[in-house]
Structures are given as C-alpha cells and as structure tokens.
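Q: Second attempt. The first request was missing the SMILES, so the protein and fe (ii) ion are both included now.
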Amino acid sequence: MFKQLSEKIAFRLGKTTPLAHSVDIHSHLIPAIDDGVKSLDSSVDIIRQLQALGFKKIITTPHIMSHRFPNTKEIILKGYHRLQKELKKQEINIELEVAAEYYYDEYFLELIKKNEIMSFGEKYVLFELSYTVKPFVLEQSVAKLIALGYKPVLAHPERYNYFSSEKHYRSLKEMGLAFQINAISTQGFYGPRVKKAVEKIIDLGLVDFIGSDIHSQKYFESFARALQSKSYAKLFKKNSIKNNYL
Ligand SMILES: [Fe+2]
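A: Got both inputs this time. The predicted holo structure:
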C-alpha cells in the first residue's frame, strides 16, 4: 500500500530522486490546536504521504503563541497521544515526536525563566519571531537559553521582513542561533522576497536544519515539489544539514 502511495506521489511529481534527509523537524500536525491540520484524518493522511516520500521520523511542533494559540505542554501532549494511538491503530510505523514552535513573546520569556520549555533532540528549541516587528532583547534571551543548556533554533529566518542582508543573518548566527529554513520558501510559497532571502541563506551556507512547516495538504504538495528541486540539491551541497542526527 505504501509502495502504491509512493508511486502515486512520484507520478504526480514526475521523476523523483531519493531524499537527502529523512527527519522532519517543523510541522503542525497535531489536529485542531493551532492553524495546522484540522482533523485526525487529515493528519494521518499527511503523515502517510510523508512516509511514502521517505520520511522515517517526524518531530511535529504546534504553535505556542499566547495571543493566538495559547497552547500548553498538557494540551500538546494530549493531542500527541491521541495521534500516536491512531497511527498505531492504522499500523503506520513512523517515529513521531512532539515539541513546539514558540513565538518570541513575554510568555516565551517567562517559560525560559521557569525552565519549562519543550525541546527536541539534544535540547533544541524551535522558536519564531514576529514577521514585521524587529524583536527587542533577542540577544539576551538567546544567551539565557544557551546558559540553560538549550540550543535555540530560529524557524524560517528567511520570512522576517526586517532581516535581509548577509550582515543580519551572520549576526543572528553569532548569537548562537541555529537556522531552520522552510523547504517551501524555495518554491515561492511565501512570495518572491522570501524566495530570494532563502536562496541567499542557502548560498551563504548558514542552514542547519530544513523543515516542512506543513499546516495542510497544500503545504505538503509544495514541500514534495521542493524536495525534487535544484534548490534542495544545492542546499545539501553548500550546508551541513543536521536533520538526520535527530
Ligand atoms: Fe511553523
């Protein structure tokens, strides 16, 4: 059945080449707790398709954003266990882990202070910034996370309007941030500015992780195309991608 599904996807995409990574570290696949997948069925469906593409492990990362998605560790774990149960029932053998995508705000800073952060791998913490307003005291917060033994990962650095130059990206890396780019940014999913920015980050060799950031089937389609693109091949040539160490 998986072979059939895999062939179906390959047919839709044209010629396919094997993937250079098999662990995804950014997605919104816990049903109905953020702006990601809305039902258990669509979550299972997307996970099946990721498996058919060659993924062995998915670390899914629901939003924790106090003003829009006030999720807690308990809410996330409850949804995660429900999804795990369904995958088991349907005999889908894929490793599924859960962490979070934190929005950089007062609540996140509070959680850092209390050392109550959901991390993955060796204490990696995924977080995002406002797309339009440059954050304040970012450097101190990053330093605090590092002092607590965490490894902060900035989600999709290409998507922030106020960062665009090599100087910006290098100063973020100098703070000690790892970069996770969205594969679909290379497909123009977020428009031409983001596409240009992600190409720059790839060319500079600053990428640590690649993510799908899948919220729905539409994202999956773009992601599957991105994995067969020239940018994907270039990404692995010019950067040392750490997904498979997780
Ligand atoms: Fe995300």
